[in-house]
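Anyone up for a design puzzle?
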């Protein structure tokens, strides 16, 4: 799981103090880090704000990334249709969030979760920020060294070993 790559968004380097000298360096580094941990058969949930590039360049990036790719559209993705993202190379696209593994709510923006709700919200959108609650896990690239993180690692953060 991962979110907020912002491929092609030069200003994000300054906005989020990303350690890259150019958007090209950022793109190449993030592709390398993705492919270092994602196998050809792995399923990756991208929780939004994937690319600011046109469809051809977005498709070129997606074709280089390993795995079966699922996009949960973020605020910057919603200006384009589900069809656009599927044609670009995602295998599945959701305009909203989804429940995963019965206990995890995958969304782009963090969702309001009161303490009685039985879900953990895995989200992006807020980049380097973080909620101080075990009900939220931010998978924005800034928190994970620009590398997708395994669901098992996220699950271990909130579910004790004896309950897994």
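Challenge accepted. My sequence:
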């Amino acid at each position: 799981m991962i979110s907020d790559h912002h491929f092609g968004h030069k200003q994000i380097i300054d906005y989020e103090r990303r350690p890259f000298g150019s958007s090209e360096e950022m793109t190449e580094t993030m592709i390398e880090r993705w492919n270092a941990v994602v196998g050809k058969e792995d399923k990756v949930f991208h929780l939004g704000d994937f690319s600011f590039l046109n469809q051809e360049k977005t498709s070129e990036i997606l074709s280089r990334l390993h795995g079966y790719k699922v996009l949960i559209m973020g605020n910057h993705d919603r200006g384009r249709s589900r069809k656009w993202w599927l044609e670009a190379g995602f295998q599945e696209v959701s305009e909203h969030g989804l429940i995963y593994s019965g206990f995890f709510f995958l969304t782009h923006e963090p969702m309001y979760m009161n303490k009685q709700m039985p879900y953990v919200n895995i989200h992006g959108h807020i980049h380097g920020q973080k909620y101080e609650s075990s009900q939220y896990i931010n998978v924005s690239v800034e928190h994970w060294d620009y590398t997708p993180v395994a669901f098992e690692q996220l699950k271990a953060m909130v579910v004790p070993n004896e309950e897994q």
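A detail worth pointing out: Helices lie at 11-15, 23-37, 55-64, 82-88, 151-158.
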